[in-house]
Amino acid sequence: MKNKSHNLFILIPFLIFLLGLAAPILGNTPPLPLTWKALAKVSFRSELDNTLGYKVSRPIFEKSVEAYENQEVVIEGYIVPLEIGEKYFVISAYPFASCFFCGQAGIETVMEVYVNKPIRLDKETIKVKGKLKLNRKDANRLIYILEEAQEIR
User: Fold this and answer.
1) In angstroms, what CA-CA distances link 145 with 13, 21, 107, 136?
2) DSSP codes joined into one string, the chain
3) Which has the higher per-residue pLDDT, 82 or 53?
4) Rounded to whole angstroms, what are the CA distances from 56 to 90, 106, 144?
5) What is the pLDDT of residues 22-38, one digit of tens each?
6) CA–CA distance, 22 with 98 (Å, rounded to integer)
7) Please, are residues 152 and 128 in contact by the beta-carbon 8 Å criterion?
8) pTM to 2 decimal places
9) pLDDT at position 136, please?
């Protein structure tokens, strides 16, 4: 009897370890918490955009920001009131009166959000999770894009 209980004490931690390894494969990993402070770690260089025909600012993301690329993240922000639709909206680190569009902050303080199912945008702030994309090239879009997003309540 002593041998069987000893084997159980070895087997159970081993099984828990294996489940931990399998969690990312099974899709059970929780989204990474992301802050606007973390997203602020970006600099810019001026570069000619051949499509537009003039120089634009291209983002240079620090490695700590690049680690979030293509990861499922959770972020909270202020809804920027745009008349675009229920499946696309913009969130900001700051309230609308202080956000990027009003000239009070940088482009690293706003994010495009694309949701799979329409959500009501009748509140001031929202918490969303989705897959983070870093936009390095398209000067007509924001540098942070959240795809396959959904509201967290």
Assistant:
1) 40, 29, 12, 11
2) -HHHHHHHHHHHHHHHHHHHHHHHHHT-PPPEE--HHHHT-EEEEEEEETTTTEEEEEEEE-HHHHTTTTSEEEEEEEEE--SS-SSEEEEESS-GGGSGGGTSS-GGGEEEEEESS-----SSEEEEEEEEEE-SS-TTS-SEEEEEEEE--
3) 53
4) 21, 14, 16
5) 445 555 789 999 999 99
6) 44
7) yes
8) 0.76
9) 96
| Cβ(103)–Cβ(122) below 8 Å | no
Q: CA-to-CA distance for 17 and 20, rounded, in angstroms?
A: 5
| Alpha carbons 84 and 50: distance in angstroms, whole number | 28
Instruction: Give the pLDDT of residue 6.
Output: 53
Question: What would the pLDDT profile of 50-74 be if each residue is shown by its tens digit?
Answer: 888 999 999 999 999 999 999 999 9
